Amino acid sequence: MRERLTWFYWLLILVIGIFSLRLGHLQILEAKYYRLLADENRIKQEILPAERGKILDRFGEVLSLSAANAHVLGYVGEVSEEEVDKFYLGAMVGKIGLEKQYDQKLRGRDGLSILEQDAEGKVLRELKRIEPVKGEVLATALDAGLQKKAFELLNQRKGAVVISDPNNGEILALVSSPGFDPKNLTQYLNDKDLPLFNRALGGEYPPGSVFKIITATAALEEGKIDQTTRIEDTGELRVGPYRFGNWYFDQYGKKEGWLEITRALARSNDIFFYKLGEYLGINALADWARYFGLGSKTGIDLEGEADGLIPDPKWKETVLKDQWYLGDTYISAIGQGNILTTPIQLNQMIGVIASRGKLCRPYLVKSEIRNPKSEKFCKQLDIQEKTLNLVTEGLKQVCESGGTAWPFFDFKVKDKRIYVAGKTGTAEFTDSKNRTHAWFSGFAPADKPEIVVTVLLEGAGEGSYQAAPLAKEILTYWFARQ
């Protein structure tokens, strides 16, 4: 028993010794570390979120996050797992649109409050405070009233409207439809109408007859025709077993006789433009399309742009593993086949005619533009004045009696006659129901343009009957305010 007690005493001394050594180690060697932990429990840091900057329209009106504005303004949401390392858990950042594009400016700089608290978590005092810095105000070129009007006119139909100032590239309205409510995104994720998709920038569509502006300009500039050149409308052309008809002949069984360039534009005569494509050849036609900005992003200060496509023999051989035929040139000359454009590209394209030859990069935020007339934003294309005059005259005749854009015949606003220059388009696409996309792109007043309007309605039918009336309502609204 005595021997056992002896072993017990030595074991007890050993345990006490170990605890004493550990206590000494904690109190002496690790005192600084544990004092820091205690201080950290005593010190509390709070993020002071900065007030987010507002986005204004061109008149200083605050643009609210709504279905009229959702695609262009975007929305703000909590950081994702992928973004948390750049910010902090719970931070709010721009997700799409201008809110994302200019997030760094709009977000400002968060502040910090360092507080002292007791063991129960009660705040004793504020040790240090760094005030948040409010986000910048973003001044845009958008016209809130015009934006709302365009959205209402689309009435949730699939399509897009782009409205700009042709003289400097300012985007006055940019609408994609159907819209979406930024506050309830989950309901749109599986919607077959793709309301989250920005059709104005990312939608790629065959331009149809609006493309004839390119074909006409190219043929005039390359010297293949002049204002006196006349081509006979034969109703149809045949190349081997393939037939290429004019829309007027196919629909009504009628021919239009001999036409020159302005009349051919006014009537959107396919035979005339098939022949221009043949005179030019596809390479020259494709080069001119690219010169006008088609086939590449416009460079607008918003993400989500598509490139579009201007096909040529090299592309067809590489992608489709086939050679280029005369029939391919015919259908390209009228904006069909494999040509794909976006609504904003066509708006920029017709803006070249409206601005007397300037290719302007479209933009939304005014503060980003120091000198809109600089080469960086507006480039003067090498197009003869007489070519611009002839094409403009043809586009004016489109909107006059005898042209294809009948909604603009005798167009008046507040009893004032306003002349419009524009082009309708009815574009075929692969569709089981044989529907067509409806286009109208034009500018007004024709002699001194201040506004360019481009309307696309997906699968809606003819441009004259669907897109042109909507464009007329937009121009009526615009001129009625003046």
Note down, in words, how this protein is organized.
With 482 residues, the protein is an alpha+beta fold. It contains 17 helices and 20 strands. The protein folds into two domains: 44-139, Penicillin-binding protein 2a (Domain 2); 144-480, DD-peptidase/beta-lactamase superfamily (Beta-lactamase, 3-Layer(aba) Sandwich), CATH 3.40.710.10. Residues 69-127 form the Penicillin-binding protein dimerisation domain. Keywords: Cell membrane, Cell shape, Cell wall biogenesis/degradation, Membrane, Peptidoglycan synthesis, Transmembrane, Transmembrane helix. It holds the Pfam family PBP_dimer. This is Penicillin-binding protein 2.
Structural key phrases:
482 residues; elongated; Penicillin-binding protein 2a (Domain 2); 20% strand; PBP_dimer_sf; 3-stranded antiparallel sheet; 5-stranded antiparallel sheet; alpha+beta; Beta-lactamase; Beta-lactam/transpept-like; cell membrane; 20 strands
CATH architecture of the largest domain: 3-Layer(aba) Sandwich
Q: What is the average of the pLDDT values?
A: 90
* Portion in strands: 15-25%
As a whole number of angstroms, the C-alpha radius of gyration is 33 Å
Distance between the termini: 113 Å
Could you say what the CATH topology of the largest domain is called?
Beta-lactamase
CATH classification, class level of the largest domain:
Alpha Beta
Helix-strand category:
alpha+beta
Number of helices: 17
What would the principal axes of the Cα set say about the shape? elongated
Strand line-up of the largest beta sheet: 9-8-20-19-18
Number of E-state strands: 20
Please, how many domains? 2
Could you state the CATH homologous superfamily of the largest domain?
A: DD-peptidase/beta-lactamase superfamily
